[in-house]
Each structure stands twice: as C-alpha cells, then as structure tokens.
Amino acid sequence: MIRLVLLMTLTLTALFLVLSVFGRGDPRAASRPPTVQASRPADGGGGLLPILTEPAAQESPAADPPADLVQASTQTPEQVQRFPGPPLRPSPEHAGRTPDAPAPPPPGAQGPILYVTGNRVNFRAGPSTGDRVIGALDGGAAVEALGPTDTPWVNIRDIDGRIGYISGQFLSSEAPN
Hints:
This is SH3 domain-containing protein. By secondary structure, this protein is of the alpha+beta class. The protein has a domain of 60 residues: SH3 Domains (SH3 type barrels), CATH 2.30.30.40.
C-alpha cells in the first residue's frame, strides 16, 4: 500500500513538473496564422515591404470592430415564402360552415347554455377521467348544463341528447368568436 501511494505521488510530481516546464504560453498561438503588416524600407524606397508578425497573445474584447467590417444583416437576403400551386380551399368537412356562428343549443334546453373552449374535448359517463368516454365535442359546441356550473366536472347534455360530464375548465358561458 505504501508503494502504491509513493508511486502515485511520484507520478503526480512528474506530471506537475512536465506541465510547469512545457505548459507555459498560449496553446492556441501556434494555430493562429501570422499577420502581414506593410512598412517602408529603411533606405527610403517607395515600395512597401510585407512584415510577418505574430498575433497578439491577448486580444481585448472591448476593442472597437474594424471600420471595414460588414454587418451580417446587410449581407443576408430577406427570406420570401413562396407557395406555388392552386389557392387553398377549406376541407370538405368545413366547407359552407362559418366559423363565427356559434353552434345551436341542444333542442329543448332549459338549463344554461355553455360552449366548449377546447379543440376536441371528451365527455364522460361520470365526473372523473377514470370514467368511460361517451363522446367528444369540438371547440365551440353548445351544451346544456344540467347541474351546477362552478364545479370541476359539469353534468351536460349535448346537441344529440347524450348526457354526461365534462371538465369545467373546457366550458365557457360566452359564445366563441
């Protein structure tokens, strides 16, 4: 056991020494290409000579962007959606039906009329999700409340005369627009 601890200590010390000696500097500096700067020759000649310089070790994040930088928003063309083909038509089950007209109330309704607010809501034989599903009502369907309307489950009658329960969160006394 002592040999194992001694071996681990020796390995960690060697690793620390190797990293201390060879691990200095910026490891990404070698992967950056050198930059080219132009300067005038010392003899006063008219031409410019390229000089290779190493990149800066630490670039300031608060530096102003270069003047010749082009913003991406000016380079990106506007996306235009084109839909080739014939004009859109309503599907056969919705043809001739106006969405603004509320559904008619159930025939012979005597209780308050409520409207379904969900897209497609199940109504059940009893007041819980564990009870059997009797049917489903589309959004905007008018139903007659047969009991109190301020409970979690409301006893209702639909336009076909079926009696069941629907969750009160999917019912509203106001007709849909």
